[in-house]
Amino acid sequence: MKFLTYKEHNNPSQIFGFKYKNELIDINKSAVYFIDKYSDDRFVSIPKTLKEALVNWDRNFLLLKELETKISQEDTSSFSIKEKDALILPPVPDPPSFRDFYAFEQHVRAARKLRGLEMNPDWYKIAIFYFSNPNCCYGHKEEIPYPKNTTELDFELEFAIIIGNGGSDIEASDANKVIAGYTILNDWSSRNLQREEMPMSLGPAKGKDFASSFGPYMVTPDELENDWDDHGKLNLRMTCHVNGNLISDGNTNDLYHSFGDMIERASMNTKLVPGEYIGSGTVGTGCILELRPENTGGWIKKGDSVRLEIEKLGALENRII
Questions:
Q1: Percent of the chain scored above 90 by pLDDT?
Q2: Which of 74, 165, 174, 280 is deepest in the core (most CB within 10 A)?
Q3: According to CATH, what is the number of the domain 98-320?
Q4: Is 31 helix (H, G, I), strand (E, B) or coil?
C-alpha cells in the first residue's frame, strides 16, 4: 500500500490516507462510512494519523489492508479526492527523529576525494549517520525558502525507511519487523555552510538543518516484493531532474550498508520509535557536489525545480523560492 498525509485545499486539517487508483482515500471518513452503511465498526479503531498508526503497526496494517479490500466494492466518492487536488505533506510530517546515513560507497569516495582524503577503511565496518532536524520536513511540491547565508545550495538524491513498532538493540536480521515502508528523501545541503563546519569535527548541522523533503508516499514492503536482485538488494532506478534536465542517475542496489545494518547501528543502546526516518545517504551521482557545478549548470538557484524519482516509490518535487 501507499500511505500518505495530505490536506484538502482551503482546509488546514491533516488527513491520513492511502492511494487507491488515482484517488486518495480518507481513512477516517471511510471508517465512518462503513459504520453508517453496514454498522461495521472494525475500522474506527485505526488511528487518525500515520505516526500514531505506526505505534502498533502490525495490527493496524492488517486492518488497513482489510479496509482497502472492502472499499474496492464501494463507491468511494464520499471519502476520497483526486490526488491532483491534494496538498501532499511528508508521510510523517512531524517525525520524532531523523537519522541520515552515509551508505553509498561511490558518493562517499567522491566526497572524500574532493577533500583530498582516501577512503577510511573503518567506513566499511560501521554504518555511520548524523542526526538532522525533524522540524523542517517538506512534502511533495511544497516550496522551500532559499537558506540564508548560502551560496552553494545542493540537492541529495536518497531514499529512506520509516520505522514502525520500534525497539532497542535490533539485529540486522530482524530489520523487517520495524521497516514499515520506504519513501524518497531529498537531503537539501548548503555546501558553503557545511564546509565551514566539517573541519572542526562536528556537523553538518547548519549545512543541513534548514530543509529535508520526504514523500510523496510511504510504500509498504509488500509493494516491492519483486524488486530485489540476486544479491538481496532493492533494484530501483533513482533519478534527479533539475528544471527538467536529467542530472543524476543511480540505483538503490548500489547501497553498501543495508537498512538492516543501519537499524542495528541506530538502535544500539537506545530506542527507535515509530515514525522515525532513517535515510540512506546520497546515491552515486546524486548531488552537484559530486558531479561538480561546472558540469550541471551551477548550484541550485531561487526558482529552480528539483524532481527526484525512484521506481515504485513515486516522484518528489520541490521549487526553491
A1: 93
A2: 280
A3: 3.90.850.10
A4: helix
